[in-house]
Amino acid sequence: MQNGVWALVLWMLVGDGQAACPAWPQARADREIERLSQQITEWKNAYWQQGSSTVSDEVYDQLAERLAYWRRCFTGEAPAHDASPPLKGEARHPVAHTGVRKLANQADVARWMRGQSGLWVQPKVDGVAVTLVYRQGRLTQAISRGNGLAGKTGRPGSCRSPPCLKSLTAYWRIAFYRVSCSCSARGTCKSRWAA
């Protein structure tokens, strides 16, 4: 199966850029769609059931978009958004992990933010899928991503990487804050107020 994965990745990187639908007979289109669909399902199962990311987010997103494109080409249907996995967490996230459903561009982000308040927007870092909860400047809870709404709780002491600061040097309770993060190896970030 590994050779098939690399063949898909290579084809995706040197493909036709999705300028036009592939000129395939329906039988080939069905085979290609089924093969890519099975691969994406395997990756999703590994991610959600085993907690293992077997492909980069960038490759996954590009191939998922390609699959949706092919389906539109050959069935005329826009695929429904994949549902999150069942709620299997002992702790609810204070704010849902929205990285579970990606927004394709700045216009989609602007549309999603319209009418929202109290948002905390920060860059996504591959491999980091945890909510850190601080109370009075102290780390009190670490919650794994789970299904984006709830996850498993870990002991705050089990988080050892620089982003898991045990306490915050300065903290404020504010309604809206945008992080412009430039982090050092010690995990300190330069931040600024939203304009």
TrEMBL record:
Q: Which Gene3D superfamilies match?
A: DNA ligase/mRNA capping enzyme (3.30.470.30), Helix hairpin bin (1.10.287.610)
Q: Where is the NAD-dependent DNA ligase adenylation domain?
A: 119-152
Classify the source by domain of life. Answer: Bacteria
GO molecular function annotations of the record: DNA ligase (NAD+) activity
Q: Which key words are in the record?
A: Ligase
Pfam families from the entry?
DNA_ligase_aden (PF01653)
User: Has the keyword Ligase been applied to this entry?
Assistant: yes
Instruction: State the name under which the record lists this protein.
Output: DNA ligase
| Gene that produces this protein | ligB_1
